[in-house]
């Protein structure tokens, strides 16, 4: 009864309770693949990368021929700041299914973090061929083009993303905030930068990009976002300045 009341009042998250129950069930249930899939996703979202890795490692042991199991493991290692291990997981998924969209996207993300932009470009280009209606893939493609200095192609990719999903900037911001709270600062920066490049006058995106730069220890870039914000939204500019001066 006490646990029920705590859930109702918000002191205990329902997903956390479910995760605790399922982690026990998984040890005795005859087919725990779905359980470990949930646990891996839950722990990743909750900012518990080690637990996510452990759950996904068990998932891969149970279903070694499932490419999506290897993708989940790659996602967990990526969240645990082990991009090279993550890349290997995505490559294993692609051995099992060369047309696995999620594996190409994950591989692109891992290569991007490793600053292997040419390889990241190949992965994202393959992803958009497999799923040409994915706005997120085009955002990622645009970021890689931008880092390679291919700005016209970058803007074309961002334009395509915006045409596919007019709300893509808002989605990027929401996902960037989640990454920021989980301590994934570089990932948050990439999400907010994608939102800014899709809509360069988006004040909330620039404010959050400034916050992410600060969390990552790059005050100079945070100050640059403040300078831009002064024109777009003086209130948000002042809020960012307060964070910079703390």
Automatic annotation (TrEMBL):
Entry keyword set: Repeat, TPR repeat
Query: Oxidoreductase as a keyword?
Result: no
Q: Does the keyword DNA-binding apply?
A: no
Extract the signal peptide range. none
This protein's superkingdom?
A: Bacteria
Q: Where are the TPR repeats?
A: 33-66, 67-100, 101-134, 135-168, 203-236
Name of the molecule in the record: Tetratricopeptide repeat protein
- Species name for this entry? Anaerobaca lacustris
């Amino acid at each position: 009864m006490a646990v029920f009341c705590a859930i109702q009042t918000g002191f205990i998250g329902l997903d956390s309770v479910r995760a605790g129950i399922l982690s026990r069930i998984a040890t005795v249930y005859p087919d725990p693949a779905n359980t470990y899939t949930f646990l891996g996703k839950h722990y990743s979202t909750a900012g518990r990368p080690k637990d996510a890795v452990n759950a996904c490692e068990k998932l891969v042991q149970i279903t070694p021929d499932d490419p999506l199991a290897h993708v989940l493991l790659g996602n967990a290692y990526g969240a645990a700041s082990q991009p090279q291990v993550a890349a290997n997981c995505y490559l294993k998924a692609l051995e099992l299914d060369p047309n696995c969209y999620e594996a190409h996207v994950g591989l692109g993300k891992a290569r991007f973090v490793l600053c292997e932009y040419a390889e990241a470009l190949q992965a994202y280009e393959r992803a958009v061929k497999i799923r040409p209606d994915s706005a997120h893939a085009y955002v990622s493609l645009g970021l890689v083009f931008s880092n390679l200095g291919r700005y016209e192609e970058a803007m074309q990719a961002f334009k395509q993303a915006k045409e596919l999903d007019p709300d893509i900037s808002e989605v990027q911001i929401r996902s960037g905030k989640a990454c920021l709270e989980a301590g994934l600062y570089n990932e948050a920066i990439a999400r907010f930068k994608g939102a800014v490049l899709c809509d360069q006058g988006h004040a909330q995106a620039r404010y959050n990009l400034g916050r992410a730069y600060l969390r990552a220890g790059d005050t100079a870039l945070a100050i640059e976002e403040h300078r831009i914000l002064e024109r777009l939204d003086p209130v948000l500019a002042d809020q960012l300045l307060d964070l910079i001066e703390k």
